[in-house]
């Protein structure tokens, strides 16, 4: 599987999808926090070809992958262009393809609390919730809307406490965990607005 990251059956692999347009220190911060707090063996950045919920396309994929590899250096983290390789556009399609390609690997989908707030707009969001555990990381200003979101309400009985975050990937979905973390308000949007990308 040249060009694909490696993982063994039984390993817990976190998946952090995004446009990374551009990647920055807050992405690195949430990655290191997720590795530690969710007890992950590995974490893969899924640099997306494009976000279906965003009107304007991002910078070229190769440019974003290269920039991501320059900022994210950690032995347990791999920056990938898996969605382009797999030919998938939506998270549910990507997860189905990865589960098929990596039998026995325990994937955990990672997202910021802002994404949980709009998760019910994602294609096949309930299938995602019922297929892989989800680790949610608090970002500035998104805690309340995330906790009141449709996804949080529908799956309230599947929520693990923050103290149980280490075992998130060890159990069967649906299960999700919301963790608070030191805040960073850095954003790719702000970097682009300043003309730094």
TrEMBL record:
UniProt pathway: Cofactor biosynthesis; NAD(+) biosynthesis; deamido-NAD(+) from nicotinate D-ribonucleotide: step 1/1
* Ranges for domain Cytidyltransferase-like: 15-194
One Gene Ontology term of the molecular function aspect: ATP binding
**Which keywords does the record carry?**
ATP-binding, NAD, Nucleotide-binding, Nucleotidyltransferase, Pyridine nucleotide biosynthesis, Transferase
Q: Which domain of life is it from?
A: Bacteria
Q: Does the keyword Protein biosynthesis apply?
A: no
Instruction: State any GO BP term from the record.
Output: NAD+ biosynthetic process
| Catalysed reactions, as listed in the record | nicotinate beta-D-ribonucleotide + ATP + H(+) = deamido-NAD(+) + diphosphate
Q: What EC identifiers does the entry list?
A: 2.7.7.18
Q: What class of enzyme is it?
A: transferase
Q: Which InterPro entries match?
A: Cyt_trans-like, NadD/NMNAT, Rossmann-like_a/b/a_fold
What Pfam families does the annotation carry? CTP_transf_like
- Which family is this sequence assigned to? Belongs to the NadD family.
Role played: Catalyzes the reversible adenylation of nicotinate mononucleotide (NaMN) to nicotinic acid adenine dinucleotide (NaAD).
**PANTHER family for the chain:** NICOTINATE-NUCLEOTIDE ADENYLYLTRANSFERASE-RELATED (PTHR39321), PHOSPHOPANTETHEINE ADENYLYLTRANSFERASE (PTHR39321:SF3)
This chain's protein is named: Probable nicotinate-nucleotide adenylyltransferase
- Gene name, please? nadD
């Amino acid at each position: 599987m040249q060009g694909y990251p490696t993982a063994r059956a039984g390993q817990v692999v976190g998946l952090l999808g995004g446009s990374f347009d551009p990647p920055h220190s807050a992405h690195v911060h949430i990655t290191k926090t997720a590795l530690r707090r969710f007890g992950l063996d590995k974490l893969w950045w899924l640099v997306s070809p494009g976000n279906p919920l965003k009107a304007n396309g991002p910078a070229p994929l190769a440019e974003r992958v290269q920039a991501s590899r320059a900022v994210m250096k950690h032995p347990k983290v791999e920056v990938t262009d898996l969605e382009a390789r797999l030919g998938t556009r939506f998270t549910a399609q990507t997860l189905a393809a990865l589960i098929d390609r990596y039998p026995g690997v325990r994937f955990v989908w990672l997202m910021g609390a802002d994404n949980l707030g709009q998760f019910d707009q994602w294609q096949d969001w309930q299938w995602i919730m019922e297929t892989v555990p989800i680790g949610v990381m608090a970002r500035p200003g998104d805690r309340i809307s995330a906790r009141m979101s449709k996804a949080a309400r529908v799956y309230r009985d599947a929520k693990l406490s923050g103290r149980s975050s280490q075992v998130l990937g060890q159990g069967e979905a649906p299960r999700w965990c919301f963790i608070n973390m030191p805040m960073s308000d850095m954003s790719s949007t702000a970097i682009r607005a300043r003309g730094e990308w």
